Amino acid sequence: MRRTALLASAALLTALIPLTAVGTASGADDPAPVPVDRFEGEVPFASQPADGIFTWGGDADDPPTLRLTERADAPEGAQVLTGSYDISGYGGFTHDFAADRPPHDWSAHQGIRFWWDGRNNGKKIAFEIKDGGANGEASELWTTSFTDDFSGWKQISIPFADFTYRTDYQPVGGIDHILGLTGMWGYAVTLPVGVKGGFAMDGVELYGRADQSRRASVTTDSAVYPVREGGTAQVKVTVATTGSVPLDEPVTVAYDTAGGTAESGTDYTPARGTLTFPAGTPSGSTRTVQVRTLGDRAAETAETIPLRLAVTGAKAPAETPQVVIDAHGLPYLDSRLPVRKRVADLLSRMSLEEKAGQMTQAERAGLTSQGDIATYDLGSLLSGGGSTPTPNTPEGWAKMIDSFQLRAQATRFQIPLIYGVDAVHGHNNLAGATIMPHNIGIGATRDPQLAERTGAVTAGEVRATGIPWDFAPCLCVSRDERWGRSYESFGEDPALVKSMETIIQGLQGRADGRDLSRNDKVLATAKHFVGDGGTEYGSSTTGSYTIDQGVTKVTRQQLEAVHLAPYRTAVDRGIGSVMPSYSSLDVLGDGRGPVKMHARADMINGVLKGRMGFGGFVISDWNAIDQLPGDYASHVRTAVDAGVDMMMVPYTYKDFRTTLTDEVRAGRISERRIDDAVSRILRQKFRLGLFEHPYADTSGADRIGSAAHRAVARQAAAESQVLLKNAGGVLPLRKNQKVYVAGSNADDLGNQTGGWTLTWQGASGTHTQGTTILQAMRKAGGDVTYSKDASAPLNGYDAGVVVVGETPYAEGVGDVGNGHDLQLSAADKAAVDKVCGAVKCAVLIVSGRPQLIGDRLGEIDALVASWLPGTEGDGVADVLYGRRPFTGQLPVTWPKSESQLPINVGDASYDPQFPYGWGLTTLTRVPKGGEATLRALALAAAMAERTGSAPAGRAIVAKARLLVQQKAGSGITAALAGPFAEADHLLLTGRYAAAVAKLTQAYRAVT
Description:
56% of the residues are buried. Helix 5 (372-375) links the parallel strand 21 (360-363) and strand 22 (380-383). Helix 3 packs across helix 15 (671-687), helix 4 crosses helix 15 (671-687) and helix 22 (950-968) packs antiparallel against helix 23. The chain contains 24 helices and 37 strands. The protein is globular, with a radius of gyration of 31 Å. It is of the alpha/beta class and 1007 residues long. The longest helix is centred in the last third of the chain and has 19 residues, at 950-968.
């Protein structure tokens, strides 16, 4: 799934509240303005902990240039702050007050203002202020914006009441979510994206007198109060002030129950009156309003009772709270009934608009307001990569999702939301979660039981934060390592991908769905249907991507055997949802040419739902329908008719729901098709137990990131390590050896976890909890010295370990040719050369795909494909120091050169650096006897095949493989590589005798 980077300025600015108040005059009795910045040189260009102005941005080109410039037209003084910018991601500047001195007190003033030299470009400019926390970089951000739609100097005045808490990004997590003007740490300006230009600013100052209505506010403890019929709702009304000072003047709150769908006197006892908070009342004081509902014996849908609040002396709540009398007595609410009957009953009661809402999924940060959940009857929300609550903790997630679920209780039928997240290698958006190796590493383990256990750990951690739906696993069969999603694949062989689909049972439980309502299971998603791993290099039409979201050109036979095969297995395993691919499918000979998968009714309706019998629902990818041809109505019509049941429309959920209902009413989409889609969605919501338990069950939260969960990730990391070369038995290391460690990825948790970790693209550095490979080697008891660039002296060491590879990326951003290649960086190459030129060395490649290492293979004694091992570097150290044996096997072919790509097992021309399935072992005795032993193994394999003894068959083939690898050493030829790789495919398909025959052929090819 493609995900927006939530720090991107463009995405931020469109969500900000436009500023309308400019140039507001101060009253005659207002205090004199207090300067913040005059830009006459009194504040330096410096960053924390000093008092100063500094720039920032998404990459090296994004920070603006800043200077103090003398101008005759300066609004005050002689100088103004000027700058130039050309921002592609996000960028701006900040003034942070000195961190070693107390924060400033702005509470006496109405707001902040400054002069801005307008360019009349129509762009929004974000302005934010910082409060609370330890300093300017550890504070809360409060934001608003103004539009540059004027020319020349203009004074922009922003009342503090116009600032809102920033929900898309906070530097350190929530502090108190209250704008505390007594503890201010400065301000920041975010400049517009996509326009090259300059700016000028002058005279930042505090203005006006703070009046109580500006700094006092009335809130309720909730926006929605569900209550059983006959029960009483308790609405808590609280008054709070900026700076937590007592009230200067009285605050009154007149309340009245009126309107809504409930009938006064019949469904509830009307409530009206006035609450008074006298002058001197402490901030945070609370009063309670009771709303009593009345019971009868009739079955009813949910009914609403708005509690209108008229506030004097303070700011009123942002919305009117609603008491909701729960739906009751209707068949769909009866958990004793079969799911199909509950679905049929509920569906029969729903309006077209309510059905369309169930087919709509919005991004949680894309909601205009939380009230839209009920207004538009939304069926689903998601968190894209990096879309996290503040604070990003298990409690923060559960609280956020419960607040969304509460909103759904204000709808007629109280249909719960199904919340989805990309937990593709653990609960990877959650700080402190257990992060597993990416799928390519899981494929290298060749351990289906372990794959299932990793899925179970992920499901438990995800569900404990209130999330019932995971957009995983990716069942792509990766056929070209230039693809930026290569690491999301279990491997290049459909037989390997199928064998790893045990992860579905880890996520969902038993195939019949009976475990989905458990508090440690989630609905899984098979993605991306179909052929996303087979796109042709250079075929992408998405931005700068080279292969992702491109075209897969295959014969019908290739489509069935390679790309569709894993989905047949997934359906048999009871997969709950399926996500189509962004890519296009071109089936050679069908005369249609490339067609986007979201438009391929023949594949979604025909093959997936029809021939395979898939009974779950199909969810679109992120904004994927926007890539279809035609106008928006055509996008909606095409995707729905193709069989897509729910649309992921992160920011356009209103447009989608309206367009869908219009298309149905116009007869261009059938009501029967809508009913089918909604039935599929409701079926999974019932199976998940969401109607009975919509809120987070956090009883498993203490196991998130626990030692037991990390032990599973540690085992997965260990088993994923593939030993490609081990000349002279360099590995395993001994603890009494002096080991020199170097390389860019030895001590970088972010590089080790890769993309889709905390954010969509991932990031280098430490952003979650875990153990780097260097730290793990030290914990293992090794005598280790570390020099990242290998600049420290190398004399006196017994061995060297150089950990090199890639930095994080995701999807098409990581495509080769889009700023990436398969070569080690210059610094990594230099580190390898220095260490391996001085001592016996082992090189570990931490990457999402093979790296081209052939030109240095001769100087490297041991080579390990470490993939992206996740947070548990201890697993890597376990095999390095012999606590566990190396057992991993290549899940993809390791090429000699980029010109060989694509190269895969079974190719007619196959001459790789290391073949698919290659993987040396340690601590294991290799059989002796040569061809005589192979003949005996062939007989035993045939017997295992006849008797259906899979464990015996696998063990026999493994012995034959070790025999071949020992004889070959580093002398891997094309004659050996082809049959060797094919043997591993045959093993995975249960043809043990044929696999031994191929290995015998490979053995004979060794010269």
